[in-house]
Amino acid sequence: MALAMGLASVLSGCGGASANGESVEKQEVAAVIPIPVEVAQLKQGNISSNYSTTAVLEAKEEAFVVARASGIIERIYVEEGDYVEKGQTLAQLEPERYQLNLTRAAADLQGIEKELNKINKVYSKKLVSDDTYDKLNAQYESAKATLALAKLDLKEATIVAPISGYIAERNAKVGNLTESFQRERMFHIVQQKQLYGIVHLPEKELARVHKEQSAKLVVTALQDAEITAYVERISPVINAKTGTFKVTLRVPNPDNHLKSGMFTQVFLNYDTKENATLLPRKALLAIDDKVNVFVVDDEGIANKVAVKIGYQEGDYIEILEGLTGKEKVVITGHQNLKDKATVEVVNG
């Protein structure tokens, strides 16, 4: 009986030792399982300090064409999207009435000229009173003015482009009656070889902006194409209500890819550093009121390192202190990482 109990006790003890051993082994295995992370190396490059805002592109020159004469629109020579030169004919009003007025004014002037020539021959002999002579001269001057106006009316029956540019809008239609200087615009012309972008900056930025300063525009409508613009004008006054000042950007558009009215993101460049040490922004972590990164050493250990940062642009940030530039820095999988943790680099 005692032998049986002893044997059972030994067997029980052996079984317990085996179970505890397996538990310890599992704990050891769990403790050394490396955490998968992705790393990136620092690089040298240029980085800028920018002020970010938005703007809508505007045409540098634009004209709203209205008729100076009244009449029926007889012909239209251009369509929306056409490029026209200054002075090019856009439309023609029926000219007959103005042609007849011109003929009548010319005939009236000719009749007065003949009568004045006759008076001049006898005026020196005092056969005509001064009053009659003065009235005839006044009629002559009036007739000349009437003829000049008739010529101007006939000229203005032909609608021409006041500036060179693209026809942005055509409201005129053949057969419509147009009144002189009516509010409805016949044509809208825009010159887009050069555009403007208007931005309003906080007054604290006034000292950092100067003429010909460069700015980067990101145009959404052109698949986020990047365009370089330049500061053309800086308003000398601050808007007291908004605390901002107006800055006009000059936007070259030699290929006419940009259009008036396009929305753009504006990054006004304050300064650019060359050969700066750059790191992907997503590598940074804010821990204990400090900016930190995790650096993986040759043994696969992630070490927390505090860094000092400089300019930030796009996906990259400038590293001023804390790294030499040769480290492998964790960019993915570091959110819950602890200092001195064992990691496995999964992106080679």
Account of the 3D structure:
The structure is a single chain. The protein is an alpha+beta fold and 348 residues long. The chain has 4 domains: 35-48 and 275-345, conserved putative lor/sdh protein from methanococcus maripaludis s2 fold (Beta Barrel), CATH 2.40.420; 51-60 and 194-272, Elongation Factor Tu (Ef-tu), domain 3; 67-93 and 157-185, OB fold (Dihydrolipoamide Acetyltransferase, E2P) (Beta Barrel), CATH 2.40.50.100; 95-156, Helix Hairpins. It is 24% helix and 43% strand. It has helices at 2-31, 96-123, 130-156; strands spanning 35-41, 43-65, 71-76, 83-84, 89-93, 158-160, 165-170, 177-178, 187-202, 214-219, 225-234, 244-252, 263-280, 285-287, 290-296, 301-306, 308-313, 316-321, 328-332, 341-345. It has a 6-stranded antiparallel beta barrel with strand order 2-9-12-11-10-13. A 5-stranded mixed beta barrel has the order 1-19-15-16-20. A hairpin with a 5-residue loop joins strand 10 and strand 11. Helix 2 (96-123) packs antiparallel against helix 3. It is rod-shaped and about 130 Å long. The protein starts with a helix and ends with a strand.
